[in-house]
Design brief:
Elements (H helix, E strand, L loop, with lengths): L2 E5 L2 E4 L4 E8 L7 E7 L6 E6 L6 E3 L7 E6 L4 E6 L8 E8 L12 E2 L3 E6 L1
Parallel strand pairs: 2-11
Antiparallel strand pairs: 1-3, 3-8, 4-5, 4-9, 5-6, 7-8, 9-10, 9-11
Length: 123
């Protein structure tokens, strides 16, 4: 089963940028749909972005579209989330997930989660 490890979180001021990375192992990375979710304190995990494996098609939540960019590097088994124009309301734990198919935007449909990386945006 595929395993993923997130990195790149940290503290940044509003308006700044961060780049999250997710390294995958244990499967054929090039055949996985990769997605990012985030979780606010006391809230359920919410969809952020996803990228397909066949045509690299992307999908974003309305709250991040135009500010965040998801990309993948199949040679390095890595997916990135470039986050620009960060806002305090982007503060959350960001999780990466891998699956053989896009199961929609409900986190409960996925199982291969990483441990998450904290992103904190100060005002």
């Amino acid at each position: 089963q595929v395993q993923v490890v997130e990195s790149g979180g940290g503290l940044v001021q509003a308006g700044g940028s961060l780049r999250l990375s997710c390294a995958a192992s244990g499967g054929t990375f090039s055949r996985y749909v990769m997605a990012w979710f985030r979780q606010f304190p006391g809230k359920e995990r919410e969809f952020v972005a996803a990228i397909g494996w066949r045509d690299y098609s992307t999908s974003y939540s309305d709250s991040v579209r135009g500010r965040f960019t998801i990309s993948r590097d199949n040679a390095k088994n890595t997916v990135h989330l470039q986050m620009n124009s960060l806002k305090p309301e982007d503060t959350a734990v960001y999780y990466c997930v891998a699956d053989l198919t896009f199961r929609g935007r409900d986190y409960r449909e996925y199982s291969s989660w990483g441990q998450g990386t904290q992103v904190t945006v100060s005002s």
